[in-house]
């Protein structure tokens, strides 16, 4: 792909202060994209890097324009405000990226009811409400996209039984996205998920610590795949449950070694992500 297809285009993202969301934002910023970011991280977290403000600084340094919006995707007022602010600041919205997500891998008997509700509210309801609020503005875009960072539907006993509450929340994000693709012709709506774990705070803190981090890929592989998806013509790519590595393979990438969190780690030694058989 030549040129800078995202130059001057506007992305509205939930979350994104760090990790995969920030990597996607920085990849788009290299084109000169505008990034409006709705996130709760107004002040630094004691155990997690980044705020919505530090993310905005990085986006600007990478060549993009940034609009940090402190808010919660669970709040309808905050969602409405984010959409209106993005439209007011940049003149429209071309892409919505549903990045905000809560993870809890507890079994059903151990999962706190409040955490179950939180996962449903952020992952499923947040994806629906933010996307829905942006649809009237997306319709005016020349190449509108909705991209949700969620897995393909795979309701096998292995994954439903592993962590039923979290599986419901992530599959719910995917169902929302596929439903929007079917309902709103002309707006591309797809999901994207990796084959291997990605070196993020969630992997470090919840999935396996240093051992799994060392067997993961960097967030840049997710960012490069997302870039490929949201720069495709909307009419040619919608309603799909996409896999990061497959997207990049279709784009001509044949060597993934540069994405290893620990240089030199062979693909065979990488840790497979959840939800994929």
Structure, briefly:
The chain has helices spanning 19-29, 52-61, 76-90, 113-138, 157-162, 164-183, 201-214, 219-230, 244-250; strands at residues 10-14, 34-39, 65-70, 95-98, 145-148, 188-193, 241-243.
Task: Report what the structure shows.
The protein has a single domain (10-102, 123-195, 219-254), classed as Rossmann fold, CATH 3.40.50.720. Helices cover 44% and strands 12% of the residues. It is built from nine helices and seven strands, in the order E-H-E-H-E-H-E-H-E-H-H-E-H-H-E-H. Helix 4 links the parallel strand 4 (95-98) and strand 5 (145-148). Helix 1 crosses helix 8 (219-230), helix 3 (76-90) runs parallel beside helix 4 (113-138) and helix 8 packs across helix 9 (244-250). The longest helix is centred in the middle third of the chain and has 26 residues, at 113-138. It is globular and about 45 Å long. It starts with 9 loop residues before the first strand and ends in a 27-residue tail after the last helix.
């Amino acid at each position: 792909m030549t040129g800078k297809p995202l130059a001057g285009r506007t992305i509205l993202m939930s979350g994104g202060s760090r990790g995969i969301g920030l990597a996607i934002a920085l990849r788009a910023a290299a084109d000169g994209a505008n990034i409006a970011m709705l996130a709760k991280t107004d002040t630094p977290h004691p155990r997690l890097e980044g705020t919505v403000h530090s993310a905005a600084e990085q986006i600007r340094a990478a060549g993009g324009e940034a609009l940090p919006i402190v808010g919660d995707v669970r709040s309808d007022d905050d969602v409405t405000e984010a959409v209106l602010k993005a439209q007011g600041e940049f003149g429209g919205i071309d892409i919505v990226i549903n990045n905000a997500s809560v993870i809890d891998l507890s079994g059903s008997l151990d999962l706190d009811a409040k955490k179950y509700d939180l996962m449903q509210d952020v992952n499923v309801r947040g994806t629906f409400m933010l996307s829905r609020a942006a649809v009237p503005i997306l319709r005016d875009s020349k190449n509108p996209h909705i991209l949700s960072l969620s897995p393909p539907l795979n309701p096998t006993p292995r994954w439903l039984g592993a962590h039923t509450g979290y599986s419901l929340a992530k599959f719910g994000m995917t169902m929302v996205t596929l439903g929007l693709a079917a309902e709103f012709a002309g707006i591309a709506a797809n999901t994207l998920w990796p084959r291997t774990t990605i070196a993020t705070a969630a992997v470090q803190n919840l999935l396996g610590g240093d051992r799994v981090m060392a067997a993961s890929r960097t967030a840049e592989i997710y960012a490069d795949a997302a870039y490929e998806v949201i720069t495709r013509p909307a009419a040619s790519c919608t309603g799909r449950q996409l896999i990061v590595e497959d997207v990049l393979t279709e784009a001509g990438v044949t060597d993934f070694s540069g994405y290893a969190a620990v240089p030199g780690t062979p693909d065979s030694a990488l840790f497979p992500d959840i939800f994929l058989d």
